[in-house]
Amino acid sequence: MAVSRRLFVTATSAATALAVTGVAAPPASAAADGPRQLIPVSPDDTEADLVRKASQVKPTARQIAWQRLERTAFLHFGVNTFTGLEWGTGDEDPDVFQPVGLDTDQWAGALRDGGFTLAILTVKHHDGFVLYPSRYTDHTVASSSWRGGQGDVLRSFADSMRRHGIKVGVYISPADENQYLHGVYANGSPRSAHTIPTLVDGDDRTPQRSYTLQATDYGAHMLNQLYEVLTEYGPVDEVWFDGAQGHIPPDKVEKYDWDSWYSLVRTLAPDASIAVSGPDVRWVGNEGGSAREDEWSVVPVTEKDYGRTDFALSYDAADMGGRDALVAARPVADYLQWWPAESDVSIRDGWFYHADQQPKSVEQLTDIYFRSVGRNSVLLLNVPPDTDGLLPAADVVRLREFRERVDRELPEDLAAGARTTVVPGRVTLDLGVEREVDRIRLAEDIREGQQVESFVVEAQLEGAWTEVTRAGTVGASRILLLAAPVRARRWRVRVTGARAAVRIAEFGLYRSRV
Fold first, then answer.
1. What DSSP state is assigned to residue 387?
2. What is the pLDDT of residues 340-388, one digit of tens each?
3. Model pTM greater than 0.90?
4. Which terminal residue of the chain has fewer beta carbons within 10 Å of its beta carbon, N or C?
5. Residues of the chain falling short of pLDDT 70
6. Taking a C-beta distance cutoff of 8 angstroms, is the pair 509, 502 a contact?
7. How many Å apart are CA 96 and CA 141, to the nearest integer?
């Protein structure tokens, strides 16, 4: 079998037999979107029960597609760009928003050249200012004199991204300082049935279908804005929520209507991943872009606040899904769920643009890449537009340099076309000639779950198999950096611990050109 990047191998348990399946992988869309994404657990489950259940959890089609994105972008843009704040107050004069040189094609071109495949725009941050002319608030671009009140950043953003082959994501903050000032957010209203969309005076829409959903006054406000965004701006591939509460008195709280919000997103954008306060994607637990050394996509979760998927362990726990973590979460966990990690970080110190800040170095970004994409996570890199409405020139250059650096770190796969041999417990590659290798990339076929708990990579040196490196998890992507190049013709990966049958989808060997 002369393939490396489409290699499928099974292992039945820790250090037990491996056998090639020989079956080509169907497209991600063939994966069932069913109850396999989560499996109930009980405080009475033994460790063996928990490990067995974890081995049976599998991703949905949308999660598989999301994990293949590898590098995604964030664009924090709004009134904060002009006030210098990171968290706005909600009482900003909309006229402060004046991106007179707005060029979203420039954004898209820079992101494409940087190797990004999806971009998420802050359609609404915590201040409540909306980057499109919403019917449900005056705190929008329509209240600015910019472009005579006819500006629509979301429209321009979505059109530009699609023209450049980049998927569209939206961030709509659950927190809303402006709606608090208007007595809507955290006003203590009970949940009741609301018709979405809620038509307003002068509304020219004739929706073919409306939805009756339970929500507070503010929850209905969010539903109406979600409806606008998800029906008027074309296909959306990711809807990004955080769980922030507004800067409000301690006796006030807005309990978010997650179940209704999720339901509307699933109906209007069925292929969109819902992150990070959502069932499809979780926050990695820090804002430094760093995943855990052993990052699991199957983790214990609880269900809170009207259906919100939440951590059973602390969001920053050192172990989120290993055997010890499964046992530690047992008293409080409701499910084991496929909930892969997104590692977010900003290219500058702040999330919004500040003129006195500079982008991270290529070396820093490359290190972040290996600590995120290289550890079974998707990188979410924020690149904030400036007050002109452009990505700063220094950031544009850095994005291109970052992509070029990754390309040099992982050039052509030396294992492409190698003779592959599978025997019980290991996969061996014969390159035909000796080649120097200092980067190794592995991936499981995650359609069958995440199973590898430990493995070693070995090279045949002077006739003897010699350990080159070892690690724990693999998942959708594991990249290992060798301290020095190793020159060998024959290489192998040997699974030493697994939860159930392992399917290795990628065993790549590289020699960096850095």
1. T
2. 999 999 999 999 999 999 999 999 999 999 999 999 999 999 999 999 9
3. yes
4. C
5. 1-35, 424-425
6. no
7. 10
Tokens of 90: 């909600």
Sequence-distant (6+) residues with CB within 8 A of 387 are: 81, 82, 98, 99, 353
> What's the token pair of residue 381?
């890199």
Q: How far apart are CA 38 and CA 106, in angstroms?
A: 41
Q: Are 154 and 121 in contact (CB under 8 A)?
A: yes
Output the DSSP codes for 459-512: EEETTEEEEEEEES--TT-EEEEEEEEEEEEEEEEEEEEESS---EEEEEEE--
Given the structure tokens 């290190």, which residue do they identify?
Answer: 367
Phi and psi dihedrals of 284, rounded to 5?
-70, -20
pLDDT value at residue 425: 62
3-state secondary structure 94-152: HHHCCCCCCCHHHHHHHHHHCCCCEEEEEEECCCCCECCCCCCCCCEHHHCCHHHHCCC
Give yes or no for a contact between 369 and 345, defined as CB atoms under 8 angstroms apart.
Answer: no
> What is the pLDDT, as a whole number, of residue 24?
27
Please report the pLDDT score of residue 305 as a whole number. Answer: 87
Q: Can you tell me whether residue 161 is helix, strand or coil?
A: helix
CA 144 to mean position of chain CA atoms: 33
